[in-house]
Amino acid sequence: MHRSGTSAVTRALQVMGVDLGDRLMPPVEGNNPKGFWEDIDLNALNIEIMNALNTDWHYLAPIEPNLVDSLRKQGYLLRAVELLRQKICNTAIFGFKDPRAAKLLPFWKEVFSHCRLDVSYVLAIRHPLSVVKSLAKRDGFNAEKSYLLWLGHVLTSLSATTEYASSVLVDYDRLMQCPEQELNRVAESLGLKINAAELQSYISEFLDEDLRHTTYDLNDLLLDVALPPIVHEVYKTLLNVASDKAPIGNQALHDQTEAWIREFQRMKAPLVLSDTLFSQKIAAIQRVAERDHQIGTLNQAATKHDGLTANLNQAVVEYLDLITSLKQAAAERDGQISDLNHA
To answer: Distance from first CA to last CA of the chain, Å, rounded?
Structure first.
């Protein structure tokens, strides 16, 4: 899920020798000042795919399972295969992240399978209340929407990856508290080795506690009236997985995930309605902005017109004054002529 420490987790993979590519999205002050660590080309393709599916990262309704067939017919599967082959051709271990991939994993798994890649998944989670606060600040989303966004991203990523023994779940708060311990745990799960110098550089130069603006306990969630109970249930379970109290690939988690997904899918109608209303709201805001721009343009034209009118009025006044002066001069001249004739 967005705002879940995915950038910090992805940057940590370089410590283990994972190549993230040389086409990375630049940092944005006030958003991700330390960088997104997202490949520009893969991110752009994900955005284009979502547009083709008439959805976006912040839409709540789950993407239908038949999306791969639809995208294959539109040529996106071939494009993704070609792009990924370009990225991995000169490296032994390539990694990429884009939170949109959590919603598009059925598509990307088809790509990985076609390319015959040995794939591992690193799933980042963060306290849902922290995500809610971050999205409220950055995007102005209400809490109900953000909780459901968190749930949709987490469940889709879990459903698509729990069968992989090399998958690993990382809790962002645990990473910030014990970075060396967490990275050793990730490296062990992925079968990778940590570069000690890179590790110290990551901890001392990249991680910044000031960038983590909120920390909450698990039960703080229960104090938020906007919380869907299923979110607390999912997060509580995943904290046990992230602390190795339960393996990510166990059958119990797989079965529980399927049950959560069925519950989430039963929400489809209100989720679709929410997305529709949100789209209508954005469209209305855009129309108001366009109207305000048009009003501003008309006001400028009116101001210019008023200026021209004022100038014309001034010219008329000056013209009338000139006529009056000429009449007075003519009267004086006629008077002088009359005096001469009389003389």
So the answer is: 109
- Tell me the C-alpha distance between 157 and 1, whole Å: 9
CA atoms 263, 47, 158, 232: torsion sign = negative
Token pair in block for residue 260: 């959560």
Tokens at 164, concatenated? 């992989």
Q: What is the DSSP letter of 32?
A: B
Q: What is the pLDDT of residues 326-335, one digit of tens each?
A: 889 888 888 8
Residue pair 12/23 in contact by the 8 Å Cβ criterion: no
The single-letter code of the amino acid at 244 is D
Residue 155, H or E segment: helix 143-161
| Cα–Cα nearest to 17, from 144, 196, 160, 224 | 196
Contact call for residues 115 and 163 (beta carbons, < 8 A): no
At residue 39, the 3 state secondary structure works out as strand
pTM: 0.83
Neighbouring CB atoms inside 10 A of 254's CB total 15
Distance CA 50, CA 248 (A): 28
pLDDT tens for 86-116 read 999 999 999 999 999 999 999 999 999 999 9
Sign of dihedral through CA atoms 321, 322, 324, 325? positive
For residue 13, give Cα distances in angstroms to 99, 166, 200. 16, 14, 13
